[in-house]
């Protein structure tokens, strides 16, 4: 049997050439894999959801006599199917996990210097994947068409429309007219969410993995001492595949448990859209932008060649845009002459590590600003926290790193040959 | 000998024709590219949806009656006697009194109506209020949420999304990220019913 296939498909050649490829093992290397698993689960549960979802806001009557949008009614129907609510919940939770895993994966690559030559391209693709993942999550948000989702999406529409010159057109095209209100909105968002963005994600994930295989995965630092010049790892098949399989099953078990125990986005509790807007908070990965929007005063508005640069554009587009641009330029500023094969230790690159911690603290403080009303904090206090705490964190981290590892830096700079 | 001569001649002819052939191919490619670009722009323009005007999504018209947008009395006319002086406000939609069409298919038609002591308004707001009843667009000028919270202590209107605070007595933003005050809608009273007396006095919706 195997021989029959082998003679036609050359399986053993594939095995020798590709499946024997060794991959290094390190616990932090599984973050990208978890993101991939989340994506696979999202596609599978998403396919199930499309089978019963109705992308329309036409009014339908529920058995209890109330009139609700068809999309909302179809999600109620999905929830009533056997395990329907759990599958929808798994879809929702997996979206959270995917965003988190992609972000943590990026952090791992960042603090270990794996973005350097030859991996600049994959760093850029990875940044694109993070952006696309978040946009995909956002376009799915409005689909249940409950009051909460509609309000949250409305804010996104406002931020998109705030981009000078092109924002109006971008928002019109993405949301199919004014959101809420336009009957084209849900079909448009649906098509983008289930077709265009997932196809783009699949293509980019494929490219990301191909480039990774071609350039070889970076190896843990200790591999340099244990087996210099060689690849220290286990073959893709069978060892690495078994690990991946187990990890996938663990991922599935954990998410299904969480999703079953904590049903995500209970649309019945939110109800269909009403003229009133509930006090919404965006998902956690948007909270920092939400927080920045809360502390930017309305006076921050000026005209620029006839277009209005308003607080929404500054908080919702410029601030994330600057962070994205800095991230995209990083591998071309922090360069390495030789091809990087081994991970750099965060402790030996104190500036990068401290700045990263400072930026993380900026995210945390901006997120805190998202609770401005709940915590009754003033703008002055929040601005101080947002600006001072990250800088302080960076400085303190540097001092701590120097105190802990300063002696080893001197050693490595004293004998640069040994470091290469 | 003859064969070789012919081959030679053909090759020469071929080389002579080369620049012409290249030019023709380049022109063809260029034309195709421009045609593709133009037609894709033409087709792509369909991505911006057409808006069909219906009575339900028209802006408030003069003579429209204000009806409840939410609550138990939804779609019934708001009577001034129902409004408590000093707040809270009620969310409302305009309704064509003849056809009974409620213009609630356009979220920007969401209005808020409230009653304050007539002396508490400044002159600009009072000019378009009627016996202490005043009407504003309920759409926050920040990012388009509905201003739906009433701050009873300060007697101010609050947007639940990013906390913009509006003062109904002076038509101004008290605090928060909103770039402009809410647009006032002139009203008059016909008996206990509240009737639209004109168009919005400012831009409505998120001012981005």
UniProtKB/TrEMBL annotation, chain A:
Its EC number is 1.10.2.2. Keywords: Electron transport, Heme, Iron, Membrane, Metal-binding, Oxidoreductase, Transmembrane, Transmembrane helix, Transport. This is Cytochrome bc1 complex cytochrome b subunit. The lineage of its organism: Bacteria, Thermotogati, Deinococcota, Deinococci, Thermales. Residues 223-370 form the Cytochrome b/b6 C-terminal region profile domain. GO terms for cellular component: membrane. It holds the Pfam family Cytochrom_B_C. Residues 1-221 form the Cytochrome b/b6 N-terminal region profile domain. GO terms for biological process: respiratory electron transport chain. The keyword tRNA-binding does not apply. Gene3D superfamilies: Cytochrome Bc1 Complex, Chain C (1.20.810.10). It is found in: Membrane.
TrEMBL record, chain B:
Its EC number is 1.10.9.1. GO terms for cellular component: membrane. Keywords: 2Fe-2S, Disulfide bond, Iron, Iron-sulfur, Metal-binding, Oxidoreductase. The keyword Cytoplasm does not apply. It comes from the Bacteria. The keyword Metal-binding applies. It is an enzyme of class 1 (oxidoreductase). Residues 108-196 form the Rieske domain. Its cofactor is [2Fe-2S] cluster. GO terms for molecular function: 2 iron, 2 sulfur cluster binding; metal ion binding; oxidoreductase activity. PANTHER family: CYTOCHROME B-C1 COMPLEX SUBUNIT RIESKE, MITOCHONDRIAL (PTHR10134). This is Cytochrome b6-f complex iron-sulfur subunit 1. It comes from Calidithermus roseus.
